[in-house]
Amino acid sequence: MDQNLYFVFLLVLNSKSLLMFKYLYLYFLLFPLIIFSQNNSSFGESNYFETMQNKLNIKLELDNDVQSFRFDNEIISYTVKPNAGLRTSISANYRFLTLRVGYSPKFLENHNSEFRGNTKIFKINMFLFMKNWMQNFEYNYTKGYYVDDYIDTSQPITFNNDEITILPNLGTKTFTATTSYKFNDNFSFKAIFNQYEIQRKSAGSFIASMTYTHFTLTDKTSPQDLQISGTVLNASYFYTFVINKKWYSSFGLSPGLGMEFNKLKTRTEEGLVKTSSNEVVFNINSHIGLGYNSKSFFGGVTLKGIATTRSNNSVIKFSTERSSFLLFVGYRFNSPKFLKNTFDWIEDQNPLK
Asked: Can you name the residues that pair with 113 across neighbouring β-strands?
């Protein structure tokens, strides 16, 4: 049974639906990009928020933002899931730089790993902050999936746990880069995203951002690889409500519009065959957070939601609606002298100050 399902997996990847993909890249803007000269220091602060100058932030995180996806053709459909529902991360932040590394330890795997296999998850991302700009780079790697919710309209069947197909060699890699610009100097990016600043007065801001994503799906036992690249432009609004000196709540709504470009590579005896296509993507992201901030200790919880519409003709379909949570706790240490001296030198080279 497992072997037959695995051939179904290869069949769906090779379905005629993917032949609709056409390689085309369309780039468009929702509004003009604002370019200006910054006269003030890019690393300064407003009287609306306080910068933890010369403090090293160390933060531990736990989240469940682990994505599954579906394959569909006219007859067969099923969900491909990782056997891990939670990730842990540790991040370090100093001034304008944040580095985060995350993985899913074995004790956080779902039950029945003998039926659903093992999943390896690794992510690393970096945030760069400069006054009103924020740049994020993120890499995610997941290997080890299993097939669930299998439906065959020609011959409906139901699988028991011992009949679940494991795809141990199936791996996904995702690279994401996001550039964001806030329009209100009194609103702090860092107070929400890495807690290096403390919002002292309530403030909000419109935020323009552009996100580029490159996703690959490969299986060394399959002759096919799938690649999806996309660009999405978001027009967002975020607001931080300061409850008192140490507690705050944050809210955000971010609609976006963009394009995704899909490419399927098939290795045959005659050579490499490529088929490609593109589709319009519309999404809405939401953000709700509650946090605690003192001079030394900080913590909080963030709830996120995303709703996405894509072409109904796509063979690979990510969840159109999903939600996730993020728990974090951290502590601010006095930075070592070598770290302070290094970042002082970097800031002295800043041409925009």
From this structure: none
